């Protein structure tokens, strides 16, 4: 295909997205994708990463495959594209099997410009068969830091993407993230086999965000600082807590002070979380108190405050979370309320994330002891059986370690996940604390 001239590209930007100019770095990424290059894109939160793959998807022939970690993000982006008259769809667990098959047929017929899927989808034979008979223009991998074991949100299914994509076709790849250290960047490039990719790193500075830190001597002082910040009416606001218990306590505090507030954490059922998120996104609720279960992929433009009631586990997580403020370019505030007691929470999480060698061995031995090649078992069940495991969450960390080291493989089995032992006797040695 012939590459569009600069004015032609601006015309397409205006026609498809009603924008008159590119943000820094966007045009260069779009041109790289139109030239058929691999690309690694590190842009600040709210910097317009999605346009870097959406616009070339509309210009190039075929369907762009977008790998996204979150169901809510898929739906939001597809809904926005459809409102613009763009042929886009998604496939995830919220769709019935019949609707999933319909989406695959539409893909095979060449009637889609963008198809959003979760990384787990690449374990399904039916999906891979559809890809083999479809014209894929390129693969965009959003939140690409999930690929890296050094990233703050590592996911084993992301790790296998590079190998799977190489096996099923020679696709051009765009990997995009807002948070990538040098180690994470190297991990992404290696895992996706894109060593000759063009790298676009536009920096992390957001000049519309005002960062504040308040040192609080005790819980009462911290509660007062939070209530005062929200009384300034810089809304909508997100209040981040490190634990579910913290979320529940802050929700109670703010409700008692007359604030209309909702809580969000992974201990809630899907229906409740979806309802809370939808109310916040549509403006019917202006304060949400949440763990880090809320946020990745959330694209609400007018968030005026992000408050950390307890500090997060890494600088990458902090940057990702404050980046949800001020995406409309207007001045917004990011406040960290710090007290020394918060250290103990993160020290506990560090212990959870780096289980003892005997815990790793015990989990592996439990899975092997069933005598089954295929297992369908929950983390809670394993944690209740193994005394060395401190929680179901720690079991989940061990499972990720075993997957990363190749001792387990995760497969789809209907709507549940199964684990397949990789035929080894023991993880002693290769599975180590990093």
Question: What layout of secondary structure does this protein have?
Answer:
Blueprint: H1 6-17, H2 26-34, E1 39-42, H3 49-59, E2 63-67, H4 71-83, E3 88-91, H5 97-108, E4 114-117, H6 125-132, E5 136-141, H7 156-159, H8 161-168, E6 173-177, H9 182-192, E7 198-201, E8 209-215, H10 219-231, E9 237-240, H11 244-256, E10 261-264, H12 270-281, E11 287-290, E12 305-308, H13 315-322, E13 332-338, H14 342-353, H15 357-369, E14 374-375, H16 379-385, H17 392-405, E15 408-413, E16 416-421
Parallel strand pairs: 1-6, 1-7, 2-4, 2-5, 3-4, 5-6, 8-13, 9-11, 9-12, 10-11, 12-13
Antiparallel strand pairs: 14-16, 15-16
Helix pairs in contact: 2-3, 15-17, 16-17
Briefly, what is this?
The chain is of the alpha/beta class and 434 residues long. The protein has 17 helices and 16 strands.
Characterization of the model:
- It contains 17 helices and 16 strands.
- With 434 residues, it is of the alpha/beta class.
- The protein folds into 3 domains: 6-201, 3-Layer(aba) Sandwich (Rossmann fold), CATH 3.40.50; 209-346, P-loop containing nucleotide triphosphate hydrolases (Rossmann fold, 3-Layer(aba) Sandwich); 356-421, Arc Repressor Mutant, subunit A, CATH 1.10.10.
- The strands form 3 sheets. It has a 7-stranded parallel beta sheet with strand order 3-4-2-5-6-1-7, sandwiched between helices. A 6-stranded parallel beta sheet has the order 8-13-12-9-11-10, sandwiched between helices. Strands 14-16-15 form a 3-stranded antiparallel beta sheet.
- α2 (26-34) runs parallel beside α3, α15 (357-369) packs across α17 and α16 crosses α17 (392-405).
- The longest helix has 14 residues, at 392-405.
- Residues 413-417 and 429-434 have low confidence and may be disordered.
């Amino acid at each position: 295909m012939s590459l569009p001239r600069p004015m032609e590209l601006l015309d397409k930007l205006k026609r498809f997205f009603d924008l008159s100019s590119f943000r820094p770095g966007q045009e260069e990424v779009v041109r790289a994708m139109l030239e058929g290059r691999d690309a690694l894109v590190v842009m600040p939160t709210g910097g317009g990463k999605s346009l870097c793959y959406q616009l070339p998807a509309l210009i190039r022939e075929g369907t762009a495959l977008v790998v996204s970690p979150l169901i809510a993000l898929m739906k939001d982006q597809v809904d926005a594209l459809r409102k613009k008259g763009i042929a886009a769809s998604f496939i995830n667990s919220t769709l019935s099997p019949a609707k999933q098959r319909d989406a695959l047929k539409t893909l095979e017929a060449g009637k889609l410009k963008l198809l959003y899927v979760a990384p787990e989808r690449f374990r399904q034979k039916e999906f891979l068969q559809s890809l083999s008979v479809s014209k894929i223009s390129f693969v965009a991998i959003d939140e690409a830091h999930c690929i890296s074991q050094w990233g703050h949100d590592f996911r084993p299914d992301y790790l296998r993407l590079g190998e799977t994509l190489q096996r099923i076709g020679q696709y051009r790849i765009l990997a995009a993230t807002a948070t990538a250290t040098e180690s994470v960047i190297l991990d992404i490039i290696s895992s996706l086999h894109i060593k000759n990719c063009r790298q676009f790193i536009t920096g992390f500075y957001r000049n519309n965000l005002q960062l504040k830190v308040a040192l609080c001597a005790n819980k009462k002082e911290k509660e007062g600082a939070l209530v005062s910040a929200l009384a300034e009416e810089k809304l909508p606001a997100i209040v981040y807590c490190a634990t579910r218990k913290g979320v529940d306590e802050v929700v109670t505090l703010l409700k008692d002070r007359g604030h209309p507030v909702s809580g969000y954490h992974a201990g809630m059922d899907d229906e409740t979380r979806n309802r809370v998120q939808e109310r916040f996104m549509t403006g019917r609720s202006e304060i949400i108190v949440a763990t880090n279960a809320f946020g990745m992929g959330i694209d609400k433009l007018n968030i005026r405050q992000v408050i950390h009631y307890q500090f997060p586990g890494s600088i990458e997580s902090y940057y990702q979370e404050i980046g949800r403020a001020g995406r409309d370019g207007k001045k917004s505030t990011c406040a960290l309320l710090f007290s020394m007691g918060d250290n103990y929470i993160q020290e506990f999480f560090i212990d959870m994330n780096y289980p003892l060698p005997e815990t790793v061995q015990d989990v592996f031995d439990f899975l092997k002891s069933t005598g089954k090649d295929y297992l369908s078992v929950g983390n809670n069940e394993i944690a209740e059986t193994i005394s060395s495991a401190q929680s179901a969450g720690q079991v989940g960390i061990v499972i990720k370690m075993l997957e990363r080291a190749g001792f387990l493989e995760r497969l789809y089995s209907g709507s549940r996940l199964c684990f397949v032992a990789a035929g080894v006797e023991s993880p002693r040695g290769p599975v180590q604390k990093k």
